[in-house]
Design brief:
Elements: H1 17-34, H2 59-67, E1 71-75, E2 88-93, H3 101-112, E3 116-120, H4 126-131, E4 133-141, H5 151-154, E5 169-175, E6 184-188, E7 190-191, E8 201-208, E9 211-216, H6 224-227, H7 234-246, E10 255-259, H8 271-281, H9 283-302, H10 320-334, H11 337-352, H12 357-360, H13 364-374, H14 379-390, H15 398-416
Parallel strand pairs: 1-10, 2-3, 2-10, 3-9
Antiparallel strand pairs: 4-5, 4-7, 6-8, 8-9
Length: 417
């Protein structure tokens, strides 16, 4: 007999739920703790757009402006502003799509007509070149405001700031042709490096025509994670800029229009539309199209065909003079005197008959009878030709037949003329 086996339904100790589940939970906790997480601060979409509520966007700036009484407009589908003659503040916040010279001209014309412009610098554009501004390569520190009291000072925020050291690092405005007269400084900077004595101002306003312009050197100044920290005081600076742009006109500028078209929103020509316009409008594009068409035609010419082309058969023929000589030798060899005489009579008839196709349809005998009726003097020659047409003649008589035909032809042609 065999010994007792394992009990039915028993399992190994390491497969029991009481052992497996704690092990899986421990591994999951360690993975969650050790997996690297995305750093807080500079992550996400970096466009300074009022549509973006992330840390790098500008949604806070638009919402604050709306709560303070401005009529906020997000211009998604228009690349150029509409001049309102002193009623609108146009905001162009670090565009990611290049501003064309025509669009820069439209902005400046609107400002000359009485509107205001808030422009945030990033890359060099025709608009910044027209305003003769850029930003310094080295930045500076925005000083803290000591007047921060009350609720803002007591509020604790454990969200990591945009800059690791907790200070505001901004670029300064650099004037390419010297600072303009009557400028208004909204934010000055302290040098990060002792060797840099004047890093510039972070935000400066100046009059332009009948309107006003504010230039912000660094896009970070208006980002959501900068404006939301009231201890830095950047939100106060932003509101001061809007208040200054609102004033100074015939009437307050109560509309704040954000250019979202140059942030990548709205409909724009597709790659197919741009390619088609290049191939149809540009001389180089048309040359490329012609080259492609020519190559396609050449490809069709050398490609295999469904039906094989048939070569035209060419029959080589002798020269007419060589053919006459060959026929003469052939007739001579077979002694074809009647054929020779018939050929000579036919040639004479083509040369002397003028009555048309009806006359040419007559037989040779009828033709010879008509000759005798009109010219009885040719009866002997006609009888000689008749005899040669009926019976073979000797070779020595062929010259006489030829002479007779010449006399008949001469008489007929002379009498006809």
């Amino acid at each position: 007999m065999t010994g007792p086996g394992p009990a039915m339904g028993s399992r190994e100790w390491w497969t029991r739920p009481g052992v497996v589940l704690p092990i899986v939970a421990t591994v999951a906790i360690f993975v969650a703790l050790l997996t690297p997480q995305a750093a807080q601060g500079r992550f996400g979409d970096s466009r300074l757009s009022t549509h973006l509520a992330g840390s790098m966007g500008a949604r806070v700036f638009a919402d604050v402006s709306k709560r303070l009484g401005w009529r906020v407009v997000q211009r998604d589908s228009q690349s150029t502003p509409a001049a309102t003659h002193g009623k609108t503040i146009h905001a162009l916040l670090a565009p990611v799509i290049p501003v064309t010279p025509e669009e820069a001209h439209a902005y400046l014309e609107a400002v000359r007509g009485g509107d205001a412009l808030l422009v945030v610098l990033d890359q060099r554009t025709p608009l910044s070149d027209s305003l003769h501004v850029a930003h310094f390569v080295r930045g500076g520190l925005l000083p803290r405001y000591n007047a921060v009291t009350g609720e803002c000072a007591e509020k604790l925020d454990f969200t990591p700031p945009l800059w690791p050291d907790g200070k505001v690092h901004l670029f300064g405005v650099r004037w390419l042709r010297g600072p303009p007269e009557g400028r208004e400084v909204f934010a000055s900077l302290d040098g990060e490096d002792e060797r840099v004595s004047y890093p510039g101002d972070a935000a400066v306003g100046f009059p332009y025509g009948r309107g006003r312009v504010v230039v912000v050197a660094d896009p970070d100044m208006l980002r959501n994670d900068v404006l939301r920290r009231c201890t830095w005081g950047v939100d106060v600076i932003a509101v001061r800029m809007l208040e200054w742009l609102r004033a100074g006109g015939v009437s307050p500028r109560t509309t704040l229009a954000f250019d979202e078209y140059h942030q990548g929103y709205g409909s724009r020509p597709s790659i197919f539309t741009v390619t088609g316009s290049f191939l149809s409008d540009h001389p180089l594009g048309r040359a490329i199209v012609l080259a492609v068409v020519a190559a396609f035609v050449l490809l069709l010419a050398v490609s295999p065909r469904a039906i094989k082309p048939q070569h035209i058969e060419r029959i080589e023929r002798r020269d007419p003079l060589e053919q006459v000589d060959a026929l003469a030798h052939a007739y001579e060899q077979v002694r074809a005197t009647r054929t020779i005489t018939a050929r000579l009579v036919r040639g004479m008839r083509w040369r002397v008959e003028r009555e048309g196709s009806a006359a040419r349809a007559r037989t040779d005998d009828a033709f010879l009878d008509a000759i005798v009726e009109r010219n009885p003097s040719l009866a002997a020659d006609v009888e000689l030709v008749r005899e040669a047409l009926r019976e073979p003649v000797a070779d020595r008589d062929l010259p006489e037949i030829g002479a007779a035909l010449r006399r008949i032809e001469y008489t007929l042609t002379t009498h006809a003329s």
